[in-house]
Design brief:
alpha+beta; 7 helices; 34% helix; two-stranded parallel sheet; 179 residues; 21% strand; 4-stranded antiparallel beta sheet
């Protein structure tokens, strides 16, 4: 479970989040809806550890993590898929996937990614920056899923993608028990 209590955050002296409370129970999906500039991305960056909270409490599986850096939150099972894909464009698909498992069981991680997105299996040696936009988003999602996270935070997951690609991505991150 991810819980944010009375979280305040922003940029410089500008406060964007004003005492936000949100709970994401295990096995659920929660959508943040709001206008551009309402603070949705800021909230995800704070929860993911990319932006410090000015105040408030953030707990992940019952442990306070508001002072933990992003990589520590990732090790505890939280994964942020930021807007804009955030892949390493100059590396191959295989290298992008391998980076996220940190040297452990790379072949099994790649097998999991290919099971979710078979197209990636055909392009493991292709430079990621040469993939289409939809394929790059699949790679970004696959990079997240190979870590087998407990909580996935996705920012603008489907923006600008063809409906068939959106369906494939949403199926890969579907809520519920995994096999």
């Amino acid at each position: 479970m991810l819980r944010l209590q009375q979280v305040r955050a922003g940029y410089g002296r500008t406060e964007v989040l004003h005492g936000v409370d949100i709970v994401v129970p295990p096995g659920s999906a929660v959508a943040l809806l709001g206008a551009n500039g309402a603070g949705k991305s800021t909230l995800l960056r704070v929860a993911g550890g990319l932006l410090p909270a000015m105040s408030g409490t953030i707990t992940l599986a019952g442990d306070e993590v508001q002072d933990a850096p992003a990589h520590a939150r990732t090790r505890r099972g939280l994964c942020l898929i930021p807007e804009g894909r955030a892949i390493f464009r100059q590396l191959t698909v295989r290298q992008n996937l391998a980076m996220h498992v940190g040297g452990r069981a790379v072949d099994q991680a790649i097998d999991r990614a290919v099971a979710s997105f078979p197209m990636l299996g055909e392009r493991l040696e292709q430079v990621a920056g040469t993939l289409s936009g939809g394929q790059q988003q699949m790679l970004a999602v696959a990079r997240a899923l190979v870590t087998e996270p407990d909580v996935v935070l996705a920012d603008e997951l489907s923006v600008g993608l063809a409906p068939v690609v959106v369906d494939e991505i949403f199926e890969a991150v579907a809520v519920g028990p995994r096999e």
